[in-house]
Design a protein that fits this description.
mainly alpha, 18 helices, about 70% helix, globular
């Protein structure tokens, strides 16, 4: 089940809200756990057992770490949790990739496991690891209630697409959270904004991307249209899901961290990664980069730290060489910015263009099904594939999608938010926000009922 679907919007969400707000406070976490497991099992009933096992193992490890007086014993249980989390990721997400890579190098024909990748496994595994690591560090006490811990791990608002919610950030709200009409209204509005990003923008760009791949009449301009369409598609898809998760969390009394902060307005790659998928960057910073020494080490060791973090960041997104190279590309760009301070003295517009071009080209690699396809895409973009600059098919799609591109470009900046804030201030005390929400819901519903193209990007994560 996904958020941008009729069953979720008109059956599941009303049912969980009605049940949640009707039961006493002591049963609210149980309701969230039950409905979250139903939400996850809706699409993957066979893999629901994996989720339950993960909850039980990490709950046990957290309890044992918390009650063990000796450091060696606490470390033993921490390692059990780490091996469990990394092991499950390794088996379900990376085993076939590693087997295929070994086979390609050695020439051996090795059988693959062909296991189904559990949706959201990268997200909830990282959340579980943050829990046991923080308990081991003494940052948080172990959770003694299995239901509350299960609700944290499986919480449906951010289960399949983030943001990655660390236990320390919601530990207090798991035990005692408040609800108000103001939070509910904010949460619902934030959810609908995210739904609009997903359905009205991301899905329409995804359709153009699909049309590009299927087209037999490409041109240089069509390749650039594809690259820009994916740049906007992945932003509105990912940030839209984060908005929906943050909104749903607020409805149920949780305050999740922001995950995107207009990253395409950045003037350096470093700034871009402070604004893009912020919860993932924070996770790698606190649990990998800083424990390795961060930047308070020799230059050689710092290079190793950077390469390690970005190798893992790339691999986190998918088990394929294009993801690995995508992560390492950003490692190189970050090192260049660190070693050439003069880049920060360039005019703002030039730095902005550099970041947009670097990110756009990186996402071409990110979205390719193979390295050979990525090479072909780059060749097409830079006129090395023997294609015309423009074709009649390209002109048709350019005219058809011009308004969508304009909306996407403007929507990726703070301009819409700023205009909305001024409009609300001008119309203070009116029912305008409520009317906007109703209209947005109706428009999105019309698109969904019409069976609009709506791919689920997070299967690869």
């Amino acid at each position: 089940m996904i958020f941008s679907s009729i069953p979720f919007l008109y059956y599941f969400l009303p049912a969980v809200m009605l049940t949640y707000f009707c039961v006493p406070k002591k049963w609210k976490n149980a309701v969230l756990l039950l409905f979250s497991l139903l939400f996850y099992g809706w699409g993957e009933p066979k893999l629901l057992l994996l989720m339950v096992v993960t909850i039980l193992v990490f709950f046990l490890c957290g309890r044992m770490i918390g009650r063990s007086p000796e450091k060696k014993i606490r470390k033993f249980w921490l390692l059990i949790s780490v091996f469990t989390g990394v092991g499950l990721l390794g088996v379900f997400k990376y085993a076939d990739f590693l087997i295929g890579s070994v086979g390609a190098v050695t020439g051996l024909s090795l059988p693959r496991l062909k296991l189904t990748l559990p949706v959201g496994i990268s997200f909830y595994t990282f959340q579980c690891l943050s829990y046991t690591i923080d308990v081991y560090r003494g940052n948080v006490p172990p959770q003694k209630n299995l239901v509350s811990f299960g609700a944290y791990v499986s919480l449906f608002p951010q289960l399949i697409a983030g943001p990655i919610v660390r236990y320390a950030d919601v530990a207090a709200e798991l035990e005692n959270r408040t609800h108000s009409w103001e939070d509910g209204f904010y949460g619902l509005r934030r959810f609908l904004i995210g739904l609009g990003k997903k359905v009205l923008l991301a899905d329409q760009f995804a359709l153009l991307i699909s049309l590009f791949r299927e087209s037999g009449e490409k041109s240089v301009l069509f390749y650039w249209m594809y690259a820009i369409a994916f740049l906007l598609n992945i932003y509105f898809d990912f940030s839209g899901y984060s908005d929906m998760a943050i909104g749903l969390g607020r409805i149920f009394g949780f305050h999740f961290m922001e995950n995107f902060d207009y990253p395409y307005t950045s003037k350096s790659v470093t700034e871009f990664w402070r604004r893009w998928h912020m919860s993932l960057g924070r996770w790698f910073r606190d649990y990998v980069y800083i424990p390795m020494g961060g930047n308070r080490v020799s230059r050689g060791r710092w290079v190793v730290n950077i390469l390690t973090v970005w190798l893992l960041t790339g691999a986190w997104h998918g088990a394929a060489w294009n993801f690995v190279l995508w992560g390492l590309l950003f490692a190189v760009l970050l090192m260049i910015e660190k070693w050439i301070p003069a880049m920060q003295k360039l005019p703002d517009w030039l730095r902005h263009v550099y970041v947009l071009l670097a990110v756009l080209l990186s996402f071409v690699l990110f979205n390719a099904d193979s390295l050979s396809q990525a090479a072909g895409d780059y060749a097409g973009m830079f006129g090395l594939a023997g294609l015309p600059l423009i074709s009649h098919v390209t002109r048709y799609y350019l005219r058809s999608y011009a308004l969508l591109f304009a909306a996407g470009i403007v929507g990726a900046t703070p301009l819409v938010r700023q205009a909305g804030a001024r409009l609300e201030k001008t119309n203070a005390g009116t029912a305008l926000p409520l009317v906007q929400m109703i209209v947005l819901l109706l428009v999105c519903t019309a698109y969904l009922v019409d069976g609009s193209f709506s791919p689920f990007l997070y299967f690869r994560f």
